[in-house]
Amino acid sequence: MGSQNEIPQPRQRVRVPAIDPDGDRRALELSSLNAIAEVLNRSTDLPEALTKTLAIVAGVLGFHSGWVWLLDAHGEYVPAAGYNLPPHLQDPENMSGWLCHCLKTFSEGDLRGAANVNVLTCSRLQGVVDGTDGLRYHASVPIYLSGRRVGVLNVAMPEWRGLAPEELQFLYTVGYQVGLAVEHKRLLQAQTRLAQVEERNRLAREIHDTVAQTLAGLVMQLDVADALVERDRTRASLALHEAQALARRALEDVRRSVLDLRAAPLEGLTLAEALQQLVAELERTSGIRAAFTSSGADRSLPPRIEMAAFRVAQEALANVAAHATARHVAVGLQLAAGPPERLRLTIEDDGRGFDTPPAAGRFGLVGMRERARLLGGSLAIASAPGAGTHITLELPLDG
């Protein structure tokens, strides 16, 4: 959500609702609030969403610039977003420290409601000659959620002017929307941390059940070979061959676990974007023609759902590359209407297939089924020798 050393700036032009002096201002404000709600709900990048929100607010009220401060977990005010900032405020040093008028007033609890949104002389621009773009004043909008301080939204202008009651209410509503978005982002981050803990626990169980047991068998076979090497070279040779097979299996298990422990593949991406990259990587490295389609699933989903779906796709595509001798594979992602709303992932290849139900533990299916079961979902496998394989994962979004 930004740092004290940098205020994120807009990466693209933002469409601001046009102001019609002769039109219905209330209708303009309502349409702008709807646009802000859509921006805040759909974006996975909070600073970018806040920047677009500032642009919309500035356009509706005729202000020049804006910025947002958020209260972090350590009780510090952190600059989280800025729109059209004057050169003086683009310098991180001029935005450091939180004891300016607006933050001090907010901390003392004097910004409490729409009626008390204040127009203040900006203490960070006071007395500055160059680099202000003529700005001197800003309206400070308190951001509260359930009575708890979240942050402050400022919109700046060159001349002081009082705000009409409907403008105050508009700003207060924007502040409430921003508070909800910030809280939603923080809850998603907490869910992501929980998903990572669950993933580590699952990997620990998998390593115990695969690598540890395989290595124990390897040690036993080596002990047998050592005991027989002088008395029965044939049996000793068989034991060594078995030990080699166990070592190869352990190496494969370790490589798969290391693959799962890489940096989070979904960081900064939607599930659809991450799957698109996974499919492209399969095609590049294996020569298998791979296609990906997505329907209605381009938005952010609960982190545990996204991680489970990605890992199932990762395991299934690794199996296609290693075992299927397929020429084509198709991956599909869609949101199915509820209730409950469900995420559906399909992976289909034209490879050699296998008898179903498959042998226990074959192709990592145990872990795939466990992921689905833990989230209240299902994993269906349809395959036959020579007929390819079709895997369908369904996960309820409220699982």
Describe the protein in words.
- The chain is elongated.
- The two termini are 28 Å apart.
- Helix 8 (303-324) runs antiparallel to helix 9.
- Strands 2-1-5-4-3 form a five-stranded antiparallel β-sheet, with helices on both faces. A five-stranded mixed β-sheet has the order 6-7-8-10-9.
- The chain has nine helices and ten strands.
- The chain has helices at 25-42, 46-61, 87-90, 101-107, 165-228, 233-260, 271-286, 303-324, 365-374; strands at 65-71, 77-83, 118-121, 137-145, 148-157, 289-295, 328-336, 342-349, 378-383, 389-396.
- It is 46% helix and 19% strand.
- The chain has 399 residues and is of the alpha+beta class.
- It has two domains: 25-188, GAF domain (Beta-Lactamase, 2-Layer Sandwich), CATH 3.30.450; 265-399, Heat Shock Protein 90 (2-Layer Sandwich).
- Strand 4 and strand 5 form a beta hairpin.
Q: What general form does the structure show?
A: elongated
Low-confidence stretches: 1-5, 10-14
The topology string of helices and strands comes to HHEEHHEEEHHHEHEEHEE
The average pLDDT is: 79
Specify Rg, calculated over alpha carbons. 29 Å
- The total tally of domains equals 2
**What profile does the largest beta sheet have?**
5 strands, antiparallel
Number of helices: 9
* SS class: alpha+beta
Short description:
The chain has 9 helices and 10 strands.
Provide the fold topology.
Layout: H1 25-42, H2 46-61, E1 65-71, E2 77-83, H3 87-90, H4 101-107, E3 118-121, E4 137-145, E5 148-157, H5 165-228, H6 233-260, H7 271-286, E6 289-295, H8 303-324, E7 328-336, E8 342-349, H9 365-374, E9 378-383, E10 389-396
Parallel strand pairs: 6-7
Antiparallel strand pairs: 1-2, 1-5, 3-4, 4-5, 7-8, 8-10, 9-10
